[in-house]
Amino acid sequence: MDFSLTREQGDIKRAAGEFAKGEFTSERAIEYELNHEFPKDLYKQACELGFIGLNYPKEIGGEGLGVMENVLVVEEFCKADSGIGMAIHLAYLPAKIVKFFGTPEQHRKFLKPMIQGDYISAVSFTEPDHGSDLTAMATTVEEKEDRFIINGTKIFTTNAGYADFFIVLCQNDQEAKRGHGMSTILVERDPSTWLGGEFEINEIPNKMGIRMTSSGELVFKNLEVPRENLLGELGRGLLNILDFLDESRIEIAAQSLGNAEGAFLKALNHAKGRKQFNQPIIDFQGIGHKLARMWSRIQSIKWLTYQSAWLCDHTPRKMAGTIPLLTAKEVIDDAITVFGGYGYFLEQEVERRYRDNRIVEMYEGTVEVQLNNMIRILKRLNPDFLNASLL
Ligand SMILES: Cc1cc2nc3c(=O)[nH]c(=O)nc-3n(C[C@H](O)[C@H](O)[C@H](O)COP(=O)(O)OP(=O)(O)OC[C@H]3O[C@@H](n4cnc5c(N)ncnc54)[C@H](O)[C@@H]3O)c2cc1C
Question: Is residue 314 part of a domain?
């Protein structure tokens, strides 16, 4: 068993860390945060340096590397700053669905400009009445000659305010049994690509965290898009989304890993420098033990996330688990305790990390839904196989 990164992976992690440490400064982060602004310039820079294309095909200028390399970049970006790191990651993460199911033409059209930093992607499955339960969509798509016609409303779409293309989960067969008859359709922001109808985007303001991203409601009124905007097979839409979520959850775990590591580093530094009762607070056992536990928890998140990425790249198994998501929250919460009253204010960054990180338990399927999936698998597994191969 070899737990070490390859030389190339080590170089990628180091380079991502150096770039993020140099560019994701506190001043910039607070400015984006308070202005509720996407860090477009840093996204562009990250693309130009090749960090975004790592996991995208070579044919369109990517590196053709695995999820592991992506995880290392996401970890380093979020370690440097939760808000900037998550905003950049979320800008290209949805496009994985195009990578998985898109035609070569769709790769060229959507992914190529994205990894060059010119396009931002978004995925819209959630609806006002369909959140955790995606077994039927109220948003419909109708085939008509050379086009598709979309009607309905989506909510909570990340990047809604500036995404160049949206992957929209729609019901194409309303008679189909639950979980069937859905399709993923690509909708471009540019109205010149529409063949008729309306597409309205309304910002949903005042969210708790990831305030450098936009969240929006999408309203489709008889929106007509060309037939070639079908992504993958007609009727396989939900499976496209579920396949995406299997992999994207591993990268979301990397967000929580980086967020926790960044909070831990800040807390450790503070505990060594802050004196009360004439001694550094790290020397009070209550604080020292907290830091030791934070460190141990980070190791558990790290190795679970890395193992999940490795399994994803080398085997058919896709698992991220919910532990990284829940454990990161505990680490960041402890960092706030170490900072005392200072931890409650924006300037020390740990409160922002807490708010930013909270979403990892909700998007890409809530922790509760992920636990349901796990228990479903555990119920089905042969106990001998479980005992011999998985424990
Ligand atoms: C900031 C943000 C960004 C998002 N980005 C996107 C995006 O880009 N694209 C997109 O399509 N969606 C996005 N979402 C939506 C997100 O995926 C959903 O909010 C999430 O899946 C939960 O759906 P819901 O909010 O409707 O909650 P509900 O499904 O109503 O759930 C409410 C509560 O009930 C629990 N629950 C539901 N069903 C079960 C069950 N069977 N067993 C146990 N507990 C259950 C849930 O875990 C939750 O705690 C985003 C959400 C937020 C807040």
Answer: yes
Mean pLDDT on 216-221:
98
Specify whether 175 is located in the same domain as 127: yes
Task: Give residue 321's pLDDT.
Answer: 74
Tens-digit pLDDT profile for residues 12-65: 999 999 999 999 999 999 999 999 999 999 999 999 999 999 999 999 999 999
**Residues near ligand 1 (Cβ within 6 A):** 123-126, 131-132, 156-158, 207, 210, 215, 359, 362-363, 365-366, 368-369, 372
Model confidence over 123-152: pLDDT tens digits? 999 999 999 999 999 999 999 999 999 999
Task: Give, for ligand 1, the residue of 90, 366, 373, 376 to mutate: max count of ligand atoms closer than 8 Å to Cβ.
Answer: 366
Relative to beta strand 165-171, strand 121-124 is parallel
Computed from CA positions of residues 40, 46, 47, 48, in that sequence, does the dihedral angle turn out positive or negative?
positive
pLDDT of residue 364: 87
CB distance 134 to 241 below 8 Å: yes
Instruction: Tell me the C-alpha distance between 106 and 125, whole Å.
Output: 20
Q: CATH number of the domain that 205 lies in?
A: 2.40.110.10
What pTM was estimated for this model as a whole?
A: 0.97
Class of residue 169 by CB neighbours under 10 A (exposed 0-12, middle 13-18, buried 19+)? buried
Length of the chain equals 391
DSSP state for residue 141 in the 8-state scheme: E
Dihedral sign computed on CA atoms, order 128, 178, 230, 64: positive
Asked if 56 and 67 count as a contact pair (C-beta separation under 8 A), the reply is no
DSSP sequence for 97-154: HHHHH--HHHIIIIIHHHHTTS--EEEE--BTTBSS--SS-SSEEEEETTEEEEEEEE
Neighbours of 240 (CB within 10 A): 23
Ligand 1 atom nearest to CA at 366: 47
**Domain assignment of residue 230, given as a range:** 121-235
CA distance 181 to 128: 19
Gap between the terminal Cα atoms of the chain: 16
Cα(132) to centroid of ligand 1, in Å? 5
Residue 166 predicted with pLDDT over 80 = yes
Q: Would you say residue 177 lies in a domain?
A: yes
Q: Which atom of ligand 1 lies closest to the CA of 154? A: 11
CATH of the domain at 65: 1.10.540.10
pLDDT in tens, 268-295: 999 999 999 999 999 999 999 999 999 9
